[in-house]
């Protein structure tokens, strides 16, 4: 989700990444807006970190990074539970 170009098609509820390589269906437009904002904010933060490796995000940006980490933690937990 953080890589590639994404096209958010609000009317049809679809997120298209890298010109139809990945298509995600989203049930709710509010979820789509949240994903779009999360992606946009993370790209800005990551660009700043790559430009200045000693960059420390301010508290507001750190909250976005914490959300991103929680998503990955949830994914890892669900994958571990599926293997059992």
Please describe the topology of this protein:
Layout: E1 6-9, E2 14-17, E3 22-25, H1 29-51, H2 59-83
Antiparallel strand pairs: 1-2, 2-3
Give descriptors for this structure:
alpha+beta; three-stranded antiparallel β-sheet; 84 residues; 14% strand
Can you offer a commentary on this structure?
The model has no long low-confidence stretch (mean pLDDT 85). The chain contains 2 helices and 3 strands. Helix 1 crosses helix 2 (59-83). The chain is globular and about 40 Å long. Strands 1-2-3 form a 3-stranded antiparallel sheet, with no helix packed on it. The protein has helices spanning 29-51, 59-83; strands spanning 6-9, 14-17, 22-25. Strand 1 (6-9) and strand 2 (14-17) form a beta hairpin. The chain is an alpha+beta fold. Helix content is 57%, strand content 14%.
From N to C, what is the helix and strand string?
A: EEEHH
Low-confidence stretches: none
| Largest sheet composition | 3 strands, antiparallel
Overall shape: it is globular
Average per-residue pLDDT, rounded, comes to: 85
Structural class computed from helices and strand pairing = alpha+beta
Q: Given the structure, what is the number of helices?
A: 2
Strand order of the largest sheet: 1-2-3
């Amino acid at each position: 989700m953080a890589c590639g170009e994404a096209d958010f098609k609000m009317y049809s509820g679809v997120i298209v990444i890298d010109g139809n390589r990945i298509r995600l269906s989203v049930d709710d437009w509010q979820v789509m807006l949240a994903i779009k904002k999360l992606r946009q904010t993370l790209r800005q933060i990551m660009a700043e970190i790559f430009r200045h490796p000693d960059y420390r995000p301010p508290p507001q940006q750190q909250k976005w990074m914490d959300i991103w980490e929680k998503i990955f933690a949830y994914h890892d937990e669900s994958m571990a539970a599926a293997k059992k």
